[in-house]
Structure formats: structure tokens, C-alpha cells
């Protein structure tokens, strides 16, 4: 009986399901758009992305001796690989966190980033974001990324494994505030990214400390209007 009950929590269709699906899809596209520009600005991004970029860089160096494979580990492929590992933990500990949003974020987000990156490689000149122009663009681009992330979470159709595991950890550690768990989770990914050769910046540290709470705040405000 418990197995049947658990299965019912997978890919649930809550009220206003079509609206939620639309919000989730638009949110993930916006998130991918913003993330591709954050990476291009090179001022710092969220810890999960930094870790994925570290994995991508490591695999590219590892596969340099195999010309046929050297271009295969794109950001999208590496993110899917990283999320697949954490997805197993979500399946083991709390399947109710899995939904259409989980698959959309886990499978599609990285390839959306690859798509927009391909466009930027063509239309944005090398070095365009150097100096004050990059700083000028940073806040608006970060706002788009935060808005997209908040929208996909507001749809409440499941979380990416990266976003879901802090909630699972928080439930296992009821005496520890969720904000502390989230900051610790983000911080651990930041450390792993640095170990993989990614540069740490003030922006990266600020994102670890404030991104989770800011997304939660925007998510609550969005929910009043779109649901």
C-alpha cells in the first residue's frame, strides 16, 4: 500500500495544472536565458552552475586526447550528468519532490543555456562584457535568472534535484533553520567548484548567502499574481 501511495505523489496534477505547466516552461526558459548571460558576464554565478562549469572544464581537459569526444561535454550534458546523480538521492529519500518541473529543470535547463550560448557566440563580440559594461548588465541579468527560477518553483510541479535536496535535508534536521541548511548546501557546491578550478569572486559568495532567500521572497510574491 505504501508503494501505491508513493507513486501517486509522482507527477501530480494540482489545480490549474495547465497554467502551472505554462509558468514552469516560461520560468525555465527565462532561467536558461539569464544563466547563459551570467556565464558570459563571468562575474560569478550560482554554486550549482559553478560546479557544473568545473565539471565541464575537467571533462574537456580529460578528453582532449580523444578528438572525437573533446567537444561532447557541453554545459547541458554536464548539468544533466550532475543532476542525474543527485536525482537518485531524491528518489531514495523523498519522491514527492519529483514532478514535471524536476524533469524540465534537470533535463532542459542546461541545453537551453547551450542554445543561448550558441547565439551569444555569434552575435556578441569577444570582450563586449569586459569592464563596466559587464557590471552594468549584471543586475538586470541576475534579476531575469531569479525571476525564472522563482516562476518554475511557484508552479509547484516538482523541483530540480539541486533545489529539492536542501528541503529533504531540512526535514531530516528539524532543529536547523532552512536558510542555514540552504546556505550550507550552496556553500558545499561552491567549495567543490573551487576544487575543480573555478575562480571564486565576491559575487559568488554573495550569491551563496542571499540567492536562496531572495528566490523564496520573489516566489511568494509571484504566487499571489500568477496562481
Features of this protein?
227 residues, mainly alpha, 74% helix, 0% strand
Number of domains: 1
The main β sheet shows up as: none
Unreliable stretches covering 5 or more consecutive residues? 1-8
Radius of gyration: 18 Å
The pLDDT mean sits at: 85
- Listing every helix as H and every strand as E from the N terminus to the C terminus, the arrangement reads HHHHHHHHH
Number of strands: 0
Overall shape: it is: globular
Q: How far is it from the N-terminal to the C-terminal residue, by CA?
A: 33 Å
The percentage helix is over 70%
Portion of residues in beta strands equals under 5%
Query: Helical stretch count?
Result: 9
Q: Which structural class should the secondary elements be placed in?
A: mainly alpha
